[in-house]
Design goal:
five-stranded antiparallel β-sheet, four-stranded mixed β-sheet, 407 residues, 11 helices, 33% helix
Length: 407
């Protein structure tokens, strides 16, 4: 894969130190670690290895990646491994995509209390889907879902929301039948929105009462119970955004969607346009221009000062150890997780089709062989001949012509 002409790492290397100095004492340890990791990613600072072509003897030096989950270059391998595991979890049912978004008035509280508020967002969204689905007036079944947290809008603003991928049906209360939803329709968005609003505000008020929320700067007055109650009172009457997208075309489409969303970071290197001393320019989607019929939006170019770009990028650093992908209900993980093969059989019985062959009861399939790296010059096989540590230069390539792989 060719290296993009401009990367977030380039912006950090050019302007990161000045940004650190200008914001000394105001950056969290997590933000500082992310900056350092991306700056060092695929450089000699992290070490690497030297490979030699069997045919033309050409040398290639490859530096190690930082593997930080906020790094735009380090998500490919993690996403591939995660998707390989999820492929075995797919059910032969239509899948729906439901998005739960926090109002802007609460997003500010969420930024100052990321671990608490983002966890409440997950819980309220999952509980909303499970509660409404379990109601006999709607579906009357126990459902499962995969939820993915995103905290950004296309312009890198703080915009916390959870994407939920939900099979279109669930297990009956007695556990003996699969109950499918109506074709093309899962649950009422209006009903989901109202319950989500109530559940989240209840959980947020409970967290405030237990002293789990902290407030700083312009929000400092919200530490007082009366001020906090007055702040959230109008939110009990406003409409909250819950958006349901049309069902996916099938399991392959679900995997394709998950591949795009699960390990996404705030901005991909491919969206960056240019960098100079005055500005970072990048492409963004202006959803205000969305076509009512097709949903198409205009792609524009935004220009920000390097300091403002870095400030926005670092808004989306998650707390250490916080899980941004979570599984609930029928798709939950752990020793008490439901038997997916049994669910597949019940789905087949509900649809009147013969059960699919059990792919998981047979012997484990042979792992897919990874193709050895090939020479960019002649296509020959590359073999590792030296591994070098952090901050060291490769001995082999110092006196020899070599090719540097920094992609």
């Amino acid at each position: 894969m060719s290296r993009p002409s401009l990367e977030v790492a380039d912006i950090l290397r050019a302007h990161g130190e000045a940004f650190r100095q200008a914001h000394a004492g105001r950056l969290s340890l997590g933000q500082l670690k992310v900056m350092s990791a991306i700056e060092a990613c695929r450089t000699a600072e992290l070490g690497g290895h030297v490979a030699r072509c069997d045919d033309c003897q050409r040398l290639a030096v490859s530096y190690n990646s930082c593997r930080n989950r906020h790094c735009p270059k380090c998500q490919g391998a993690a996403a591939k491994a995660w998707l390989a595991e999820r492929e075995a979890d797919l059910l032969p049912a239509p899948y729906f995509h439901v998005v739960f978004t926090l109002p802007a008035a609460l997003a500010a509280i969420g930024f100052q209390n990321k671990a608490v508020v983002y966890a409440l967002l997950f819980k309220a969204a999952a509980e909303t889907l499970q509660t409404i689905a379990a109601d006999p007036k709607h579906l009357g079944a126990r459902v499962g879902l995969v939820a993915v947290l995103h905290t950004w809008g296309s312009a890198l603003t703080h915009h916390p929301h959870v994407h939920c991928i939900v099979p279109g049906g669930g297990l009956s209360p007695d556990g003996q039948r699969w109950i499918a939803c109506r074709k093309g329709f899962f649950l009422s968005v209006r009903v989901l929105s109202r319950l989500f609003r109530r559940l989240f505000l209840e959980k947020l008020a409970a967290a405030h009462a237990r002293g789990r929320l902290s407030f700083f700067g312009d929000l400092a007055q919200l530490a007082a119970p009366d001020a906090f109650a007055a702040h959230i009172a109008p939110l009990r009457r406003t409409e909250w955004v819950v958006y349901a997208k049309p069902p996916f075309g099938g399991p392959a489409a679900v995997l394709a969607y998950l591949a795009r969303y699960t390990h996404r970071v705030a901005i991909a290197n491919s969206r960056l346009v240019s960098l100079d001393e005055q500005a970072v320019r990048f492409r963004w989607k202006d959803y205000r221009t969305a076509n009512a019929e097709t949903g198409a939006v205009k792609i524009k170019t935004m220009s920000l000062s390097p300091a403002e770009f870095l400030r926005r990028f670092l808004l989306h650093v998650l707390p250490t150890g916080f899980h941004r992908i979570r599984h609930y209900g029928l798709l939950a993980k752990g020793p008490r997780a439901p038997d997916l093969d049994q669910l597949r059989a019940l789905i087949a019985a509900q649809a009147g089709a013969p059960p699919a062959a059990d792919q998981h009861a047979t012997a484990e399939p042979e792992p897919e062989a990874t193709a050895p790296p090939t020479c960019v010059c002649c296509g020959g096989r590359m073999r590792v001949i030296e591994v070098f540590g952090r901050g060291r230069l490769p001995r082999t390539a110092i006196v020899t012509r070599f090719w540097l792989d920094s992609s």
